[in-house]
Amino acid sequence: MRNALLGILVAALVGTLGAVAFLYSGLYPIGATTQHSRVVYAAVEVLVRRAVARSASAVTPPDAFDDGSRVEEGLSLYRGWCAQCHGAPGVAPAPFATGMNPTPPPLVQTARERSPAEIWWVIDNGIAMAGMPSFRFKLTEEEMWAVTAFVETLPALSPAAYAAMVEASGPAPEPSAQAERGGGT
Question: Which of 5, 23, 28, 80 is deepest in the core (most CB within 10 A)?
């Protein structure tokens, strides 16, 4: 029993020293043009999924957060703040977004997999080292719920339906104008 415990401690020490040596070696490719390994992507995915779920568990959506007027406001905000990186039904992300690593995900899948509270939490807090900024100081809490309400509609929107919504809503406001009126929470 004592030998097994000693073996476990030695293995843990060697593993820790190996990890520290690897970190300090500078051997891991960190350029944005180099894809991470599947192991790194899987580890980050688990970390983000679990951290967002835990953090968002304290968030409660407002009553009827997804009513029609909120979805319309969310469309306008989405077009001004989100579509450049995430795209929209039938609309590709802006060219700069394809150079981001990790690539911003299409939010149709996000809306299928995440709760409204989780989507709102990510909009509010962002995700470190993923290119996802926090909108806490750019949008009000209500505006972030409006974006969440719109994102929730994405799985049901065809490119034609999205184009019709865009046409009915008029031109997208400039993000700078939204920031002036947004203020944060």
Answer: 80
